[in-house]
Amino acid sequence: MPRLKLLRTLDDLPIIKGFRPIWMKANLRQAVIMNLEEYEALRLIDYEKQIHEQAALAMNVSRPTFTRIYETARQKLSTALVEGRSLLIEGGNVTIQESHWYCENCFHKFSAAIASEPEKMICPKCNSKQLLNLNNCFLSGCRRCRRCK
Ligand SMILES: [Zn+2]
Ligand SMILES: [Zn+2]
Fold this sequence. Notes:
- The structure is a single chain.
- With 149 residues, this protein is α/β, with parallel strands linked by helices.
- The protein folds into two domains: 8-94, Arc Repressor Mutant, subunit A (Orthogonal Bundle); 98-139, Rubrerythrin, domain 2 (Single Sheet), CATH 2.20.28.
- It has four helices and eight strands.
- The chain has helices at residues 36-47, 52-58, 63-83, 134-139, and strands at 8-10, 18-19, 32-34, 87-89, 94-96, 99-103, 109-112, 131-133.
- It has a three-stranded mixed sheet with strand order 2-4-3. Strands 7-6-8 form a three-stranded antiparallel sheet.
- The chain is globular, with a radius of gyration of 17 Å.
- The mean pLDDT is 89.
- The structure holds zinc ion (ZN) (2 copies).
- One zinc ion binds at residues 103, 105-106, 108, 123, 125-126, 128.
């Protein structure tokens, strides 16, 4: 049976792109990749202490689908911990409510409505145009920009 593709809307992005292990050489090629819906499931259940029904509703998925996402997320988190691997949060079948930016000039982080002309965005604090679109860093699995390297 083909699985129905649903888009879950995220209000916000994680404040970090992932973790690097202490004592181990951080090898991003062997990193555990957690996608944004798995991150969101962990956040709703383990951080916000929501019940599964509530969280499934918030993510617009059925209860069994939610449980599957959540179990996968926990499996990945424990794999990273036990095997001493880096953890990267990226990708996933989600839409992000706003566009999130990081200024490379003054390190200010801000969000804005999704701009029709993102290349014209400027930092509200310092007016710099050296901005990184964090939505892209999360959704496209960026390893290239100065922040994700
Ligand atoms: Zn700035
Ligand atoms: Zn990036």
